[in-house]
């Protein structure tokens, strides 16, 4: 049992549906599980099945259609918005600031916290993701895979309690993808972050302790003691 297991994000009977002018899309319903600090989770399944949507609501960035998402610490419940600053996000679109170079993009979360060592720590993280030679490049001067690695360094630089990553190795070659996967799982294992990955990569998904797979309109836990049911 993880020493962080008293710190978790809880999803209670969560469902997500979208109603547009023409028709409604129902992605999943009645999904209940906890994301504990220090544990890793992979969300897998076909394109369009709802993986990114689940990530957005589990991280509190979007509201579920039904049910609720809360943060629980030692049994005390708080709104998920209370831990927004403790969550590292890695999006499919990297959302880097175009006017800032790689170093300052990564340093920004630390500067916002008033960390005097921001630039030095950001440099270390850019070296960890293999970009020590690209510190002064702006996003437009970086390749897609390099931008992805800057976004990963920015998400990890402040030792977040939780990391939500949407296809974090999607733009990378096999070797870089392996190195980034090692970094993400090290944050979970060594620093106690809760890690939630959306991925099409079996290699990445199999490294997670638990896998929630969307499959032919249903979703199921593959390696789980959670026993959660979900209806799509
Ligand atoms: N805001 C929205 N309004 C209407 N429909 C939406 C909205 N967001 C997502 N959808 C629909 O929900 C479905 C699931 O989208 P989602 O991005 O969660 O899929 P995914 O499993 O992550 O796919 P991929 O692997 O291609 O990234 C899609 O068909 C999408 O069109």
TrEMBL record:
Gene3D superfamilies: P-loop containing nucleotide triphosphate hydrolases (3.40.50.300)
InterPro entries with a match to the protein in the record: AAA+_ATPase, ABC_transporter-like_ATP-bd, ABC_transporter-like_CS, MacB-like_ATP-bd, P-loop_NTPase
Molecular function terms, GO-annotated: ATP binding; ATP hydrolysis activity
Keywords attached to this entry: ATP-binding, Lipoprotein, Nucleotide-binding, Transport
Family: Belongs to the ABC transporter superfamily.
Protein's UniProt name: Lipoprotein-releasing system ATP-binding protein LolD
PROSITE patterns, sorted: ABC_TRANSPORTER_1 (PS00211), ABC_TRANSPORTER_2 (PS50893)
Pfam families from the UniProt entry: ABC_tran (PF00005)
Record domain ABC transporter: where: 9-226
Secreted as UniProt keyword: no
